[in-house]
Amino acid sequence: MGWGDNGYGQINMPANLTGVTQVACGNYHTYALKSDGTLVGWGDNLYGQTDTPTNLTGVTQVACGGYHTYALKSDGTLVGWGRNYEGQTNTPENLTGVTRVACGYYHTYALKSDGTLVGWGRNGYGQTNTPANLTGVTQVACGGYHTYALKSDGTLLGWGNNEYGQTNTPANLTGVTQVACGGLHTYSLKSDGTLLGWGSNSFGQTNTPANLTGVAQVACGDRHTYALKGPPIFIASVKPISGPSSGGTAITITGTNFAQGAVVKIDGVLATDVVVVSSTKITAVTPAGFPGEAVVSVDWAIETAFYYRPECGSDLDQNGSVDSGDIAILLLDFGPCQ
Q: CATH topology for 2-229?
């Protein structure tokens, strides 16, 4: 379901489009990610923003900017296309461990597996000035000239342009599972499948349809918004609750409304050997991760439900060597080495 401005056909969903697992909106273009890891784009294509690269497969997430698009692949690498006048598709060299990507009008952000952010492109409003000491990020979203981070505790932090109140997070907003940013507006999806929007509403882009429930994902374009509906997914438990940071732990996830083809991630990194046993049970194997609490996700449902144990001699602060800083992390944060 799409609503808002449709001057370039950006809410004219292609006929017979099925198997969609994620939707992303740019200024005047839209993309759908299918369960087979391929992409379908429509709307404005002035800068080639809907010219999906040939033979692009293995996509786990798509993000649309003002006039550019990014795909995150299963190996943690990024592919960008479209307008690049402001460097918004100049992926930083040696960028690894990417678990999420987000695009603004003229800027781009990557979320890494250690919960840190990397931004590039235009910065006229401070939209790539990541707040100091920002940790525990599970999702990043970019608007026209603003950026939002969703933390593991369900709280939000926004920065950049706030001319229309697009970074004025509503007071007492809790239980957020996803955030999306448009040109001048922002939306949050709550764990109960409901939506809350704020910022500019000049084209009705924050007029959430009455009685809209059961939302699985929300996406914002320049002046329009899309909601992907589906039965709400809930994660009840993950067992065992911990495993080594090297990965390889066989886990069982229980919950509700799991679907065949579900995407399972641990701290944003794809799990392996995923088997959807039933609508209430999934088995998988953990990838390597950074020591500490890890967010488990099944499609758009998230839960802090796993703990990566540090290993003796691990480079915990990831500075390239095992030193006194690693010992301090072990003693202060994780206890005895296991």
A: Methylamine Dehydrogenase; Chain H (2.130.10)
